[in-house]
Description:
The structure holds two protein chains of two kinds.
Chain A: H1 11-42, H2 46-50, H3 64-70, H4 73-105, H5 112-124, H6 129-138, H7 146-149, H8 156-169, H9 172-180, H10 185-196, H11 198-214, H12 217-222, H13 231-239, H14 253-286
Helix pairs in contact in A: 1-14, 3-14, 4-8, 4-11, 4-13, 8-11, 11-14, 13-14
Chain B: H1 2-24, E1 49-55, H2 68-77, E2 79-85, H3 91-101, E3 107-108, H4 115-123, H5 131-137, H6 139-147, H7 151-155, E4 164-165, E5 168-169, H8 172-175, E6 179-183, H9 184-189, H10 198-210, E7 214-216, H11 225-230, E8 242-245, E9 248-251, H12 256-270, H13 283-291, E10 295-300, E11 317-320, E12 344-346, H14 352-365, H15 368-376, E13 383-385, E14 400-402, H16 404-407, E15 425-426, H17 428-433, H18 446-458, E16 465-466, H19 475-501, H20 506-519, H21 522-532, E17 537-538, H22 546-554
Parallel strand pairs in B: 1-2, 1-3, 5-15, 7-10
Antiparallel strand pairs in B: 3-12, 4-12, 6-10, 6-11, 8-9, 13-14, 16-17
Helix pairs in contact in B: 12-19, 18-22, 19-21
Amino acid sequence: MEKAIHIREPWSDRVSIVLIYIFLSIILLCVAYPLIYIVSSSFSSSAAVTSGRVWLFPVEPTWYGYQAVFQYPQIWTGYLNSIIYTVLGSIISVALTIMMAYPLSRKTFMSRKVLMWALLFAMLFSGGLIPYYLVIKSLHLLDTRWAMILPGALNIFSIIVAKTFFQSSIPNDLYEAAQLDGCNDTKFLTRIVLPLSKPVIAVLLLWAAVSNWNSYFNALIFLNSEHLYPLQLVLREILVMNNVSTNSITLSPEQLKQFEDMKTLLKYSVIVIASIPVLILYPFIQKYFVKGVMVGSIKE
Amino acid sequence: MIRINRTVLALMMASIMIILSACSGNSTVPTNNNASTNSNGPVDENKVVDVSFFAVPSSDVIDLKTNWFTNYVKETFKLNIQWNIAPSSDSLTKQSLLLSSGNYPDAFWSGSFSPSDILKYSQQGIIVPLNAYIEKYAPNLTKAIETAPGLKQAITAPDGNIYGVPSYNSCIHCYWGQKFWINTDHLKKFGLTMPTTTDELTNVLQTFKDNGLVPLSGTSDGFDLTIFLMNAFIYNNGSDFFNVEDGKVSYAPVQEGWKNGLAYMRDLYEKGLIDKQAFSQKSDVIKQLAAQNKVGVVPYLYSAGFIDTANPSYPNWSTVAPLKGPDGTQYAAFSGNTPKSLTFVVTKNATEEQIVRMIKLVDFIYTPEGTQMMNFGQEGKYWTKAGDGIKGLGGEQALFITQSDKFYSAGAKQNEGWNQMGPIFQNTTWRNGFVEAKAPFSADGLESLLMLETMKNYAGHQPKQVYPGVIWIKPEEYQNFALLKTNIEQYVKQSMAQFINGAKSIEKDWQSYVDGLQKLGLTQYLEMAQKAMTAPFDTSAFQSDTKTVEFLSSLK
Lengths: 300, 556
């Protein structure tokens, strides 16, 4: 290793590094440009956006789009609701997932095969929309916040991921060693497994948070009151519905025009505002994606 | 480390407790009241009763619960409405889910029920007939059914019952919604006159193209340019392609005229006179082209949809009257053939008392004043009664002065009215009288402009008889009909694009195209359509009116 530092890299390596950088830069450009475009558009006047004069930096900078968002009460109740659903939903979801995955990862757990099979079955087959709706109705969850949190809390795919993680990175020897020191299963889970599993918890949390934040379909079918709507449903309302077509012909031209104008006005600023929480979440969780948690935990 | 774990554990435990308490506990039971409250005792007229409504609110309404008109309904009609809200983007999904799960409210206030839905749900007993109540409690509605064109046809089921009320909107300019808008400034600049025939249009488009403009564009998500052009060869209503002659239904896409129309469009396309993107791009692109003054002709419902009213070139955009084809054919697509779905229906959950009050409410809305209050709220806020001498769109005394520019400005929020949610009655009297006529190209003159352009260029250019918008097909047959309809219409549209862009040759492939339609079951489809039509829709009441045109043109 010491020597390798002094050796000049061969030409072929340098060329390939340059090529890799060029390639990655192109990808960066492809990913970053739409984001920059949307942010720039959100600060530009809507006339400039519709006439296509915005391509990189804001044209005729204005706060008008954001002002309009601030005057739109549904967006704010939706925002608050989405935060509630995301925070509560993610915590519950991760807690349930771990409580399910840990027993399944233990070889000493008797019914793990049956349970696993049942879970896989439920992952592949579902009862369909109407039975789903009837279950939620019979549980009296309709039109409550719980309808947004509970039905999707247990994601079977996440359970499998967590279970595999426990199986592969928590050696059985560790359990035996702990047992010798007088540790039972609960203590082993909370004091040894969980601290060692921060990466997988971070992943589960991120998945749960993003899917909770983006979900709208449950809200659509289970919620009947506007004050419970999450942000995504409000956004959908603003961005999707307002497409002019021959079907919306009962509307008067004033109303059509109102929709059109509102759409151009709100579109970009609303997208920016709705993306902020998820963008904030990433760097905080990313620091847990560290390797080597297991180093030195056990000596063979 | 250990402390952190304790907090995690505590959090987990807490969340479990919350779940358990939520499951066992006191969460609100959805209102599925009444039914049992159906007592035979004397009804207390002044007691407010609860009623649950399915509704799709307009996005400018702040909160239906605290809305002024909701409160007005409570005080005047003694109905305390519990709202069951669906977002408009997916209201149909939610409506059918509620109906098939059995968890429906007392009434669907702003639902959408096609004739076959009505047949299906009435046979299942989910929705109830309203005739007796309408006769007894709804004089205005009864009168409207007799007089408003198409209304009676739309709401009377084959068994003679009335199961619901539509949102009736006599939107004259939407009836002839397939308009071509042309930038007259470009015409002047190149010394051209307004095209009146297909050949003249070719000529105009060619000149536009030679001068670096996009001659004729279109959008995939908005208005289709082929409908306007096809009408110079054969009547194309833009929706189901049915034509009616002497009570016999025929299918336009297999006629000789259709073939000639395709040949004309192919010619335009080949010469580059139709924008290559016209069939795939979104309306955003058109807006950019129009704002940059780069496009000549745009198919759209209204010009303000693709160009800002504040743009200096806005007054230059004017409609092109239907073109005369080589054999003199000159039609405009007409969609005023009755409301196509019902908005308000009552389910079997509703009690006698609730139904009576709801019908009284609907009856109130079926007056100009009622629709006005339901749309815009209390007098004095967004509207006032029109004083003597103030003229409406038809040049006659206006009923109201509505500040529609304020009410409908972008991003505006209001909590006064329901804004066209539910069974409105916007007949010609109301529509011509709800605003003061303003000069067509002023910022608040949109209604005037569209009325003027429609009356001047389009009204009356439809055939005397058209296929009715409402047809009653039995639910068991409807599925087959709908399947045929989807397949056939998709094939027609797809082939049309192929004929125009040259993937299919009109001379060589026409016969195989007609054969293809036959294979898809065109004969059976036409038979069903013929059987379902009890009578053709008579369009003689929908004519141009020179008085209106003169009046609106005179406004400055």
